[in-house]
Specification:
Number of strands: 3
CATH architecture: 2-Layer Sandwich
Mean pLDDT: 90
Number of domains: 1
Shape: globular
Strand content: 15-25%
Structural class: alpha+beta
Order of helices and strands: HEEHHE
CATH class: Alpha Beta
């Protein structure tokens, strides 16, 4: 799952991309199970986010991960920064 998330987010041409799988902390919390990768913390630093509001940045990421969010990913924590905010 982590590799698929990274593949999709690479279209944002990130200067920094960090994906941390926190699923093990939630293994009894969600039916999908910790072994399937259900909870992630993601940090992206990208020029693409310059001039975007926080909501626009989140929508951009949600669009890229839309089908995974419907069926596989249970929770995301996002830190989305432009290059001048890091």
């Amino acid at each position: 799952m982590q590799a698929e998330i990274e593949r999709r987010l690479r279209v944002l041409n990130p200067l920094e991309l960090s994906i941390i799988d926190d699923s093990a902390k939630h293994k009894n919390h969600f039916e999908g199970g910790a072994d399937q990768g259900t909870h992630f913390r993601i940090k992206i630093v990208s020029f693409i986010f310059k001039g975007m509001s926080k909501i626009e940045r989140h929508r951009t990421v949600f669009t890229l991960l839309e089908d995974l969010l419907k069926n596989q990913i249970h929770a995301l924590s996002l830190a989305l920064l432009s290059d001048d905010e890091q």
